[in-house]
Every structure is written in C-alpha cells, then in structure tokens.
C-alpha cells in the first residue's frame, strides 16, 4: 500500500488530474521535439511540464516521481540552454522517463506500489548531464553549476527535491499559529500579514485578508509570499515578533510563481474550474469569493515578473468550464431518459382524453401544457446530451506516441496526421472506441505502410502517411484511418480464406473484389505473412467489427492496391438514445435500430421463394433471405409462425452478414427510444442488444440485427451439417 | 449464529409457494407488485420469465416455482411479484401470494434441516418455528445467484 501522509482523497484526486495533464503535455512536447528538433517553445513546454510534476509530486510526497522529474528538469534545463543537443539517444531516454512517470502515476491512482526502480534511469540522466557539463567551460554561468550539483551522486539530495528545504528566492508558504488564549487572533493575523507584506509580495492568505479584516475567528493563518532572500528565516522571525504568535513554520518553498497554481489546485476539491483550453497547466482561480480575485490579482502581479517561466495559460482566466463527476452526468441522463418515456406516455394519455372529452376546455389546457413539457423535455435531453460530449482528442492523444514507437520498431518512416480532434462525441462512445481504433492504426502501420525501401522502389515518397480524422455526419461521428500504403490485395485474401477453410474455392472465385476484401472481418483470417506483436494473429478485425457493431456502428473499407486503404468507422453520437423502427409480431413489439434498416416492403405468400430450404424474396433483382421474428424468438416447442396471413411486412436490414428481410406482421412507427440493459442477471442474449420502455409502459426488445443474423446463420449451418 | 441473523428480532415478508410459507428479510424487499405484463426474453435462462417495467426500471423476473423445480401454477389474483435487491440489481420473484409481514425473535429460528422442508437445504438460512406454521427462510443470495441459475437449469436438463 502506498500512502501519502497528510493528503486527503481529494488532494490525490486533484494531483491525478493535474499529473495526467502534465504527462500529456510532456508526451505532446516530446513528440513535437522529435519532429521539429530544437525549438525553444517546445523545450519550454516540456521543461514546464516536468517542473510542475516535480512540484506536485513533491508536495504529495511521491519521492520517486519527484526525484525523476527533478533529474529530468536538470537535463532539460541544459537542453534549454543549448548545452545539450537533441538527438535520438536523448529522445529515447526522455520517452523512457515518460513511461516510468506513467507507471509511478499509476501507483498514486491505484495506491499500489509498482516496484519500479528509478535509480538506473536517473543514473543515465545524470550521466548525460555530467557529460554535457564537462564539455562546457568552467567559466560558464552559475545555472550550469546549479545543475551540476548532482554530479557524481547517485541521486539528487533529498533536500533539493521535496521543495520544503529549497533555498534561494521563491514563493514561501508560512503557517502561523496563535496561542490558545489569544484574545483577538484576527487582529494578530492582520499584524502578521501586514508585517510580511512589507518584506515581499503577498500571494495569498488563508483565510483571505477580507475575512481577517472582517474580524473572523482565525485559528491559524497561512501566508504565501514571494520572497527574494536566500533563506526564509527572516520571514519566520518577523511573524514570531508579533505577540500571541505561538509558532511560525515554513510549510513549503516553491519556485517563484508556482505557489499560486498549486494552492488553488489543492483548494479545489471535487468540482473545480479550469481553462476552456485543454492545455491549461493549472486550474484557474476558484469561482467563490474566498479571496480568489484578490489572490488572482496579486498572483498576476507576482507572476508577471517571471512570465518567462510560467505558461501563459497558467494565468488566472475567467473560469468557463466546470468539471463534473461522470457518475452525476449519468444520473442526469437516466432521469432525462425516464422523462422522455413519460413524455410519450403523457402525449398518449392526452390524445385518449381528447377522444373522450373532445370539447372540454381542460383538455385543451392539458394539451398546451403537455406540448410545452414535451418541448422542454426535448431541449433538456439535447442539453444533457451535449454536456456529455467531449472532444475526441481525448481518445486520439495516445496515438501519436503509439505510431512513433511502432514505426520505430519496424523501421518504417511515418507521418502521422490527426484531423478533427475537436469533434465531439458522447463519453460512453469514446470509452469504447479506443481499442478498435488502436487495432486499426496498428494495422495501418503494420500492414498498410511499406518499408522505406519498398516505398522508394514503388515510386512513392520514403515516408508513409497515416491520417486519422474525425467529423460529424448527421447524427453520427465518422472516424477514418487512411494510409497511403500497399492496399489490400483481394486475391491474397481469397487465397487465405480458402486455405483456412473459411470459404470454398468456388465461392472465392465468385466473390467480387469488394466482398473479398470484406472477408478480413471474418473470424480467423489474417493475411500477414508473419505473426508479430503488432498485428496479425487473425483475431483482430472480426473483433474490431464486433466491438463497433456493439456500439450500433458500422465499419467499411476502401482500398486500392498500391495506393492505400481507408477504414471508415461510423458511430452514433450517443449510446443511450437511438432512433428505432417499432414493429409488431404476434402482439409483441420489437424495436429495430434505424441504422440497420434499409427499407420496408410489403410481402405476400406468393412472393416467398425457397432457396436451399431457406425462404427468400426477390427485391429488385437481389435475393434477400427472410427471417421470421416469430421463429427467431420462439420459445422452445412453440411454433410461432402465423399461418393465416395474407400480407406481412419485410423490414430489409443490412449488416456485414448481408441483407436480410425480417418478417413482421405490423409496423408501429418510428420513435426515439432509450436503450436499457436487461441487466447482468439475464446477461447477454444473442440477437438482443437491450430493451426499451414504450410510451404505454410496455417493455420492448431492441434487436441487434448483426448478431441476430449471425446467430441464425450459425444455427442453420449447424442443422445442415447434422 | 448458524442462521446468520445478528439482531434479536428479524422482520420478514412471508409468501406462499405451493402451500408452504417462505420468508425473506424485509430489508431485502424493495417492492411487492401485482402480476403485470411480462415481456419475455427469448433464450434467457429457464427460470427467467422475462422483464417488467417497474416505474421506469427494467427488472428481470424469476418464477420461483420453476426455480425450485415445482410444477408451475396459473397466475391468480393473489399472484405477486416480490422485488428483492440482489447486489446492485433488483430482481422480481413470482410467488403464489404474499401473506404477511412478521416480526419474529431470532431465537425461534432453527438451522436448516432437510427433513423440515421440501427444498434443498442449501437454499435455506433457517426455519422459523411459529405457533401456527413453519416459515422457511430463503437464502436469496444463493437462490438467485447466477451460478445457481446455471446449476438449476443443468440439473433440470439432466432430470428430463
């Protein structure tokens, strides 16, 4: 168990949120550094991220993390001062540091020690630092000496690291306690603050100066002050000189300009404000009146002197966003979903009432109110859905590093382009889409892009391009992964499918190129000649497709031999509510997601043909197999086929299994439905993706067309074999 | 402590099943409902009849008679769906009737004895001996557990 004495769960939460941002900034920075080479701004970004991490991990008491970031900072400082060149070796070390930091960060998250040993890595960092400094002349600036303090030591001295004992100018936080019998602590507090304000710029006080001046009870006073002296001792002495002061202790000394951000980070607990920009280094001032504006103003003046060291985004900006626990949003979504159901019910009741008591003024009034409530509910639903949206950048951000590592590992040169990372989608979708995308990108790098030599031989640029893009299309989000690699060879796939016994040679020959390419989504097919850890165990694409279909999405491929492949993933914006076609069969109602419905056609007995013992209809020249809902969902022993029918409807659905006509006996209508799970007690039912509550309170099954069709195909194959 | 009740008294919801009385702790009972339309779930486990809509929540419903391998009975006016909490999930149980809510001292509860009840003793927490009747206390966690669900359907399949 890893424990951080004195830290509350909220402190740790805030640390984690901040650390995650810093780690991401670090990664972004490193990737960019590798691309552009030495760039002052980029190096600055990396340095600041390491620096901020050092500060927050030291405050938290995570020694390893603080030590590692400290060494990184020293090294980056040399890079910043152009005493160290950016090269592949340096990049590798830095990326390794990042990986280790992630492991250490996970320690905090899980509370479990990982046993990660950082001494080797810090040793390497220090070696590089030492080397770089030997090359610099002795007469160099004092900063380089400061960096060189660590030289020859296995690890930096404790005192340098945790910040509390740091000497030299910086932001000092002082905790002042008053004696118990102090008659008017607020007056004493005012005196202390007043005295200290002469010695340096006061960044903030807890409680705020307004409260102290208002005479509120002050048990303890915390003062943060910008201090130019070497040792904070004079500050302690000045505070102790005020009567009734029992103790004055230096809580922490941080580099100038950093205290403001930190104090507010820990003050903000569950919900805190942050900049509208994702890149925000530190949370901005708290929204309440707890001296926030004052602290902000003072901090701004304090920070201006050191603007070069702090990021522009660390400046307190007007808070415009609020972070909310996802669980709360889920509660809201569920409530709205229930409201949507009731709205429908209300409308139905109301129309029944209108039938019964048409001319009644009360009915008209009810009508007005229910229409209004209906409109409000729709707006509320839209607003909540919007609140659940967030940019897909959160999903995309882990990919650049992945592509880099993959490309490096396989000796490929790849330009990875991301477009449309601002495109928003529902949290629930974004949580699920990461893994399929990883797979597709790995494939693009592993199978798609050729080696530089092959590319040159084919008359293409050495460097391959993989483009990941996202955009909205109606109520869907479309994500494309395009590479300019070798493309997919339909013949190779035909061959592979035949040799693996998936299809017969005849079938293979008859398949169109497009259908052949689509075979890569079949279980057990991989065209990769060798199995490697990147892709190609033949379990990939079918799982990708299943995962995407589970989200009510689709995936398709466009590929041209020698020119590259584009995978297009289309997903609904939200998983909670979908548009569906409600159909009836034998007095039961089923919902078919509109995404799978192509068209509806009326059929008569004479329209049905029998092909290989299965029923089918002709639809403009195509033969479409039929599935009777009653057959599919019949309970054992129950023959649910209505014999006495004249006409039925075939809902033509489309999935990767091809077109299938679902035979139903009535059409109820198109409706927005709220997807509910049948719960873990019943578990996964093939062919059913969930249930929904209809306006009249009845429960209807939502059909999962691809898995339904798959199941029936399997069953038919089984019976044929037996 | 063989029956697993810590307090001196325990409050039970008592229901009927094939002319026997069964009890579950009232704290586990969320709701008692009249029979309502149940939406069948195809290919669900044997004893799961389907799902109902309980004020906007979708709740699976189990026929306790089927669960216990008893012959199924026609639903009557007194048939009830007792909704109990299983972990995070509420589950409805169809019973013949709900007879009463009882407060009994835990000292009248005896450890399960296979002689006293027609059910496998693993389902039982104990048997409350009251003056006028015996109430079999069900171990809901066991009766409704998923493993047991599979076990029962397997056992049924074998016996057929």
Q: Judging by the overall fold, what is the CATH architecture of chain B?
A: Beta Barrel
How much helix, percentage-wise, in residues of chain A?
Answer: 40-55%
| Sheet with most strands of chain B | 6 strands, mixed
CATH C-level of the largest domain in chain A = Mainly Alpha
Q: How can the largest sheet of chain A be summarized?
A: 6 strands, mixed
Per CATH, the superfamily of the largest domain in chain A is HPT domain
What is the succession of H and E elements of chain B? Answer: EEEEEEHEEEEEEHH
Q: Judging from the principal axes of the Cα atoms, what is the shape of chain A?
A: flat
Which spans of chain A have pLDDT < 50 for at least 5 consecutive residues? 137-166, 261-318, 528-539
Structural class of chain A: alpha+beta
SS elements, strand count of chain A: 24
* C-alpha-based Rg of chain A, rounded: 33 Å
Overall spatial form of chain B: globular
How many structural units, i.e. domains of chain B?
1
